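Good day; I would like, with your permission, to put a structural problem before you. What I wish to show you is a protein chain and, alongside it, a tokenised description of its three-dimensional fold. I would ask you to consider whether the tokens describe a fold that such a sequence might reasonably adopt. You will find the record immediately after this paragraph:
***
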Amino acid sequence: MWKLRGDELSLRDPLIMGILNVTPDSFSDGGTYIDADKAIAAGRAMRDAGAAIVDVGGESTRPCATGVSASIELERVIPVVAGLAAEGITVSIDTSKPSVAQAAVDAGARIVNDVTGLVDPAMRSVCAETAAGVVIMHMQGDPHTMQDKPVYDDVVVDVGQYLASQAVLAVEDGIRLESVAIDPGIGFGKSLHHNLELMRHLDALTHFGYPVLVGPSRKGFLGALLEPTRGATSAFDRDGATAGAIAAAVINGASIVRTHNVQLGVDVALVAKAMVPRRHDDQEINRT
């Protein structure tokens, strides 16, 4: 079980986290859900399509994105978070600002999804005090620099060690062990090779004992893979490639998949999970 603020989610089957960006400049859906009522309707549709979580973000973290103030981010996300939470939807707030995380949890969010990996002690304090679930993500650099020739000794080892150390720090600062999930940060300070290595070796991250979240949806590395046969593709042209990445993620051990197209994610995760050999503990559970 993944322990959240006032709730818990079963990890027996892969969870789908729907992406809901209330920004003008996100790489895929920027500008689509600036209106709060439209955003709430979209989140409701994600829930109805099978999303276990709706992840609301008010600041784009795409490569070279321009940051926004906490006041702007709050203005964008709080009405949406409150509206979705009022309908019983499990909401995650995608932010690196402690003040935004606190306000979003107060408005009903149960998860804090921090692309900076909870490096800010104030963010760890907010998450501990509110008992929110947390997603600790790896990013090399920041959105302005992360794609400037990223370098690793061994990307799987380096990312894994970072996530494990940040998770330990989070628990030491009062965040419940059962509330922590980790995310390798596909596309955040990684080359095509790095992204593929992480996707191929997700099982190395599951060995740390935390649920692994993966977010490959419509990202540039998929466009790079498609380019030799299809040429340049827009984000919206990459749902088929996203399906392949989701299947690989689930087969390699991901517990949570973050995606724009929720119905696609639900269908692919269901089929991929069915093709993974059952573990002994699953068989024991099924017999009781």
